[in-house]
Amino acid sequence: MTWWVVHVDLDQFLAAVEVLRRPELAGKPVVVGGDGDPGKRGVVSTASYEARAFGVHSGQPLRTARNRCPDCVFLPVDAPAYNAVSAEVMAVLRETGRPVEVLGWDEAFLGVDTEDPESFARGLIADVRAATRLDSSAGIGENKLQAKIATGFGKPAGVFRLTSGNWYDLLGDRPPDAIWGIGAKTTAKLAALGITTVRQLAGADPDRLAAEFGPVTGPWLVLLGRGRGEREVDPTPYVPRSHGREITFQQNLADWGEVRSRVAATARQVAAEISERIVARVVVKIRYAPFVTVTHGVSFSGASSEAAFEAAALAALEMFEPDGPGRPVRLLGVRAEFAGEAHHP
DNA sequence: TCTGGGGTCCTAGGACCC
DNA sequence: TCTGGGGTCCTAGGACCC
Q1: Which nucleotide is closest to the Cα of A40 by its C1'?
Q2: Cα angle A311-A313-A318, degrees, rounded to a multiple of 5
Q3: Cα–Cα distance for residue pair A274/A336, rounded to 1 Å
Q4: Of A190, A153, A158, nearest to A169 (Cα)?
Q5: Mean pLDDT over residues A220-225, rounded?
Q6: Where residue A341 falls among pLDDT bands split at 50, 70, 90?
Q7: What integer pLDDT is reported at residue A216 of this predicted model?
Q8: What confidence tens digit (pLDDT) does each residue in A122-150 have?
Q9: How far is the CA of A207 from the C1' of C3 (A)?
């Protein structure tokens, strides 16, 4: 028997959930993002395939999406609805009895010992569809990295196997950001070193990249280029390391007193949401116009009452005082970092 | 493309200690 | 006084992901 990692990813998840409960939207270009008003500040969370045909995609400002697709149907993000459907999907995956590692609302890894991972993957897709009427795709790999990237080749509603055997055929000539974990910044930095393809990254000297990216990240990038990754699927329940809230204002805040009262209110909300956890640190984030972000935090111990948490957030806000007041504030956030339970013993 | 909101993990630099 | 060399902890920022 051979150990395989299978990655399952629902197709256009948020849009698909919306179409399920509003069948009249089937076949229409649907965009889910922000509070559903494409005239406001916000970005696209998910665009249906019909909307993508207009050039609308995740992460795009809603106003841009509206310009590209004035006739798209714009809907607000309804997190409770997606949580509920996500739980159904994960329950279906767990019924296989295999380890399931949840990655987000609409993705999971499974580990399976089999000689026919395609049959297993097709079975998963069929089971998810039978239970939820949602389409998904699956990727098969020797590790999580390969499986995750394979799914992209399988979409929509397909299955694809990516292994060390076909890794370079499929990815060797692609830029480094084709790899999960490598983004635009790293790709640009690599290009400055003369590394513009996955094949070149795979052949790069780990010590040279260590000098550029740090002792852990440098060698890790080379391993990514070679398609190496974690093979173990971890089914233990997810324990958040932090919890926070942030708000982008429709109009920048100019009044520091207003900033202070919004920080206090947000802090109380966050405190109410984390009742049981032990908070080690409270961090306040301010994004000034135009898009300059600063954070300050304070250590936290003792009773995590809402009042104490609010006081800690306001103390962190005091650290902005030298240059904070007077600058227009675009976004504010408050985050609680939980006391760690020693990551790996 | 005037750039959300929820997170995670890594790095660099300073403080501090011996 | 022209000035060590580690180690560890804390903090802010950066990069990335969905």
Answers
A1: B4
A2: 95
A3: 8
A4: A153
A5: 94
A6: low
A7: 86
A8: 999 999 999 999 999 999 999 999 999 99
A9: 32
Mean pLDDT computed over A154-163: 94
Tokens of A35: 């509070």
What is the Cα–Cα distance from A309 to A335, expressed in whole angstroms?
Answer: 10
Place of tokens 């329940």: A237
What average pLDDT does chain A have? 93
pLDDT at position A307 over 50: yes
Between the CA of A211 and the C1' of C2, what is the distance in angstroms?
A: 29
Residue A63: the pLDDT is 94
| Residue with CA nearest to C17's C1' atom | A181
pLDDT tens profile A101-127: 999 999 999 999 999 999 999 999 999
- Comparing A172 with A344, the larger pLDDT belongs to A172
Task: Give residue A214's pLDDT.
Answer: 86
Alpha carbons A40 and A322: distance in angstroms, whole number: 31
Question: With a 7 Å cutoff on the CB, does A43 touch strand C?
Answer: no
Helices A256-273/A306-318 angle, 10° precision: 140
B5 C1' to A133 CA distance, Å: 28
Q: Which residues touch strand B (CB under 7 A)?
A: A 34, 41-43, 45, 58-61, 63-64, 77, 213-218, 240-248, 290-291, 330-331, 333, 335
Q: What is the pLDDT of residue A343?
A: 36
Please name the residue whose C-alpha is nearest to the C1' of nucleotide B10: A217
Q: Which domains does chain A have, with CATH numbers?
A: 3-13+80-162 (3.30.70.270), 18-77 (3.40.1170.60), 171-225 (1.10.150.20), 242-338 (3.30.1490.100)
3-state secondary structure of A105: coil
Whether the Cβ atoms of residue A259 and residue A330 lie closer than 8 Å to each other: no
Q: Which residues of A are identified as catalytic? A: 107
Report yes or no: A228 and A144 within 8 Å, Cβ to Cβ: no
A216: tokens are 């852990």
> Is the backbone of residue A55 left (phi > 0), alpha (psi -120 to 50) or beta?
left
